[in-house]
Amino acid sequence: MALKSHKIALRPSDAQKTWFAQQCGYARFAFNAALSDFKAGLDEDDWRSFIDLNNRFNTSKKAFDWTKGMDQRAALYGIKNLSEGIIRWKNKISRFPRFKKRGCKQSYSTDEQAVKVEGKRIKLPKIGWVKMFQELRFEGELIRVTISRTAHRWFVSITIDTGLPNVPRDTRGLPAVGVDVGINSLATLDNGKQYENPRPLQRYERKLAREQRKLSRKVFRSNNWYKQKRVVEKLYYRIACIRNDAHHQATTAIVKSASVIGIEKLKVTNLLKNKRLAKALSDSALGGFLSKLKTKTDTLGIPVIQAPQFFASSKTCSRCGYVKDELLLSERTYHCEWCNTKIGRDQNAAINLKNFAVGYTEK
Ligand SMILES: [Zn+2]
Fold first, then answer.
1. Which of 84, 109, 180, 327 could serve as a FRET partner for 153 with CA atoms 20 to 30 Å apart?
2. pLDDT digits 0-9 by tens, 54-103
3. Which residues are CB-neighbours of 6 under 8 A, at least 6 positions away?
4. Rounded CA gap, 157 and 109, in Å?
5. Ligand 1 center to residue 349 CA distance, Å?
6. Pick from 161, 190, 220: which residue ends a domain?
7. Cα-to-centroid distance, 263 and ligand 1 (Å)
8. Which class for 41: exposed (0-12), middle (13-18), buried (19 or more C-beta within 10 A)?
9. 241 vs 317: which has the higher pLDDT
10. How much distance in Å is there from the Cα of 328 to the middle of ligand 1?
């Protein structure tokens, strides 16, 4: 069944903002309490499951009077997040969960069964109606409702089961499309069309680096540090918005025009190891582009053929198949010594990826 998510900015009153912050704090409290409980269990050779952790938390929380008035689902989902993290760690997908500190990303999930959505407002357990900036885009059964804060704004993410099967789209008559994803331009297609990174992005990224440096010079957790941190968070948010928009526009256009998509297999560099800001930004950018592409192609049933990492999409001549020994990053034009073709580097790569997807190219 098709699950859809919609993230909508909220327009909460001051009292509601305070309530949200409290529930995020409660979710964090439950997460941390269950994490130390789980760790204690490990020491005693007692593997505590989600159910164990949740039951034990519900017993121990009685010692804290303030938890009574809270949204109990916030704690439940906090512990659920933790146990999902534990399973990822057990399967060696991510590292061992760490305690959530004050000031890390604030979010909590609530009882989706008790939530109602009507036009531009949403009814949340215990707090009542909260205004939204937009109407919910999809209809169906609510699966997950999460409130979160990004920079200065509160959002609700609503995941819905639309009840509709994922129907493959009729793509007869549409061509195969090769997509070269890059840092210089966001994406280049085999027909030469390019999707550029939006221009404000560069300006904001430079500004972000500057504000980030300023932050590093402030006294940690001083008033000025918090003030500067807010500046940095707002910039991050703005950059993410600009980038998201660009990614949505490009991926929607590409998906609409293709019956099959050929793309390079990108190494998802380990963001955790990556301390350099510019690098981290470009990495997360490509990841965001690819995940949006994947969601949209999945929904429409369009196959995406990923060329393997050894596939020389850039070094191969798309006309005659000649493979260069070396191609410098600075060479923006591909010039084939064999058949004398001259073509834009990215477009050349995109054509090779298209051919790979179609099955003409074997290596
Ligand atoms: Zn050639």
1. 84
2. 999 999 999 999 999 999 999 999 999 999 999 989 988 788 999 998 87
3. 136, 137, 138, 157, 158, 160
4. 9
5. 13
6. 161
7. 21
8. middle
9. 317
10. 17
CA of 39 to the centre of ligand 1 (A): 60
Q: What is the value of pTM for the model shown? A: 0.60
CA of 262 to the centre of ligand 1 (A): 20
Does a structural domain hold residue 237?
Answer: yes
**Contact between residue 330 and residue 345 where contact means Cβ atoms under 8 Å apart:** no
Q: How far is ligand 1, taken at its centre, from the CA of residue 324, in Å?
A: 10
Distance CA 223, CA 77 (A): 32
Give the whole-angstrom CA distance, residue 78 versus residue 67: 14
Q: Residue 49 belongs to what H/E stretch?
A: none
How far is ligand 1, taken at its centre, from the CA of residue 327, in Å? 14
d(CA 188, ligand 1 centre) in Å: 20
**C-beta of residue 79 within 8 angstroms of C-beta of residue 49:** no
Question: For residue 314, how far is its CA from the centre of ligand 1 (angstroms)?
Answer: 12
The single residue listed with the structure tokens 């190219």 is 361
298 CA distance to ligand 1 middle (Å): 35
Q: Is residue 49 part of a domain?
A: yes
Do 210 and 156 share a structural domain?
no
